[in-house]
Amino acid sequence: MPEYLAPGVYVEEVPSTNKPIQGASTSTAGMVGLTDRGPVGVPTLVTSLASYARGFGGKLDPANHPPGYATLPFAAEGFFANGGSRLYVVRVVGGAATSSWSALYAPEPGGPGTVLLAPSATGRTEVVPASNTGFAADDIVLVGGATANELAVVALPDAGARHVLAGALRWTYPVAAAVQTQVATALAGTLSAQAFPGAATLGITDPTGISEGEDLLLQAPAGGTGAEFIRVLGVQSVGEGAEQTHTLLLQWPLAGAFEAGSTLSALAASADPATTLVTRAAAGMAPGVLELDDAAAAAAGAIVRLTGDGRTEIALVDSVPTAMSLAEPLKSTHASGSALGALSPVLEVHARWPGEWGDSLRLTVSPAALATTELAQELRVDQSVMQVDNALGLYPGSVLVLGDLAPGAAHEVLVVQSVDRDAGSVTLRDPAAQLHPVGTAVASREFTLLVELVENDRAVQSERFANLSLDPLHPRYAPGQIGSWDGGTPSEAGGSELIRLAPVTGDPPAGTLVADLPRYLSGGSADAASITEADFKGRAAVDPGLRTGIQALENESTLSIVAVPGITSLVVQQALVAHCAKMRYRFAVLDVPAGSSMNGALAHRQNFDSTRAAIYYPYLCVSNPFGTAGETLELAPSGHLLGVYARTDNTRGVHKAPANEVLLNVLSLRVALTKGEQDILNPINLNALRDFRSENRGIRVYGGRVATSDPEWKYINVRRLALFIEQSVDTGLQWAVFEPNDKPLWDAVRQSVTGFLDTVWRSGALQGTKASEAFFVNIGYNVTMSQADIDNGMLVIEVGFAPVKPAEFVIFRLSQKTIEATA
């Protein structure tokens, strides 16, 4: 009591005894099963079908999964279609499930590099580099040209010889075309006058040994360069004696220029055996490439004759380099001279969750720059502090390019150690190796990552992360922005819903990621084929983070109705019922095995005797999105039923039986039950689904019984009302724990519970025309507690209520009225 020292008004705080009890949630559902993607073993809330699709993906094709395993996505759709609004999903995967992954690459510092000696066309699985030195199997290489570039994986760095020609072939030759080396024999005649490109005739000094249709080798005179094969169309000689002139008519115009005195040589087959083409030799590709059955049949400098498809021509082998075999066909055509260089992985990109869905993730890197400025002072060699006009956008870890990035232009790459923006001063991690004058361009090197989920060649979801860095000191460090992948575990925090990043061990690269090359992740698997009953049942653990399957539902306290749609194994269903008993306030909806007959459904029902479960029959028929037009899919009804439960709870209350309710998003029932069949199902508490469309009443849930032999809890609504009241009182009286166990507490508890039950009664859930007929609340010494109870810290409350039971059978009594009866 306060001490009153002077007259006045004093206000005392008195603890309130009015502590109303809030009703527990009754319409929050939980499902366990396979999904396309999403977190594994973690109850995750979705509040609509769109919310489910964002978190767990689309439907699964039943044809690609064991029976019942593809049910959950369809069940989730049925739940929301029938009025459900809060669903926790626990995803199950196989023990060998993996997440799709790929890597982002940068040019390997000091790594091998070369150019292509011969062009390589789309679809080819090899390239012909100038050198294979330094390349090894499984190396990632960048094949680049002026108009196309792509990543490729080296299968064999040394994959046999290819014969690169000095020029292009005039015609195309098929596989097995003959190839014969030639011997050149000098002729007496030489060019009598200079010949220019495009010439159709050649003046010669002597036509001896030259015949119509013959192939000749035309070569520049000693000390000159140039050689060309020509075909003689005819020989013309004009005049006599010393005045006579000779002209060769050519089959096709001359390609090069040749001066007077250039020599002519006749060609004849060598003594070496002929070989054949292993692959088609294409016309017009410069230089041409021959792949021969006998790689040693022609050496560099050899002259060969190709014969096939009625055509023949002469070609000169320029070189015989060793080809490089690739793991996959090329996607683009690359000209000779295109660069070929090794790459190093810089970041691993992992799909956030395991499953095949991750193979549809496409990554595209594009260059970006947070800062562009100029040197305000000259930066000398070995100097590690530079002055810039504007330091905005520069941070520790920023990679800077000083100079012009144009091909062949001089530039230097440096990394920022620290920044003084006010002074425009930048300290570099390593000193400069080049001299850079005032005004030199300075640009930071960041990158933008576009992540797309591609379905049917169309991006259905995309994320874009701009101005990322590869350096952990940078505020836009990529794994920090997107989310990290640590030893196979995706971080909860991160900006991406689709991927997580892991840096490759080693120092952050100062180079730039290979850009503008869309690349898909690969290697993802949900390992659905190996999922067993134990995976659905889940792993129990003291640590909530280690629980999986049904056991993971323990992590979410608000659940009231649960199912494992489509999974009818007794081990799994009994585990679900046991879970409901353990959690006290939960109710399970069970399915009968797929394809069950009446006898099969009756036999399955006999496996259960629980006051916390209900079973329904038959299966539903819904549209099959993976089948042909009009094809249907038989679907376990538990997901739709959870939606009906939630709809009834929300619109009428938990005291209303979830029966005589219309089933939505259903085309038909697998078995059309009549009253006769229901007369068999009802006595054993197996709930029927009935088709009343012939009576214009749709397809309805026509049973509301618990799978129990206990007559007190025969009806679903009565059992769930009791669970609702018990959970609400349990939760609503937590404030009473550790309060003094005496009359003030007893009065407060009585008031709280009475107020709650009065609300339940007024909602129509309890019988009676007045509250005293609907319920009672007893508490007190020698009423519900002995002194021993009080000494042992127990507060005992006794609550009774009279539930309103469903009018399952409407009895209409009809009798005839007589005159005598009214006399």
From TrEMBL:
Q: Which Gene3D superfamilies match?
A: 3.40.50.11780
Q: Where is the Tail sheath protein C-terminal domain?
A: 708-815
Tail sheath protein subtilisin-like domain spans which residues? 548-704
Q: Which Pfam families match?
A: Phage_sheath_1, Phage_sheath_1C
Q: Which PANTHER family match?
A: PHAGE TAIL SHEATH PROTEIN, PTHR35861
> To which protein family does this belong?
Belongs to the myoviridae tail sheath protein family.
Name the chain's protein: Phage tail sheath protein FI
Q: Which organism is the protein's source? A: Paeniglutamicibacter psychrophenolicus
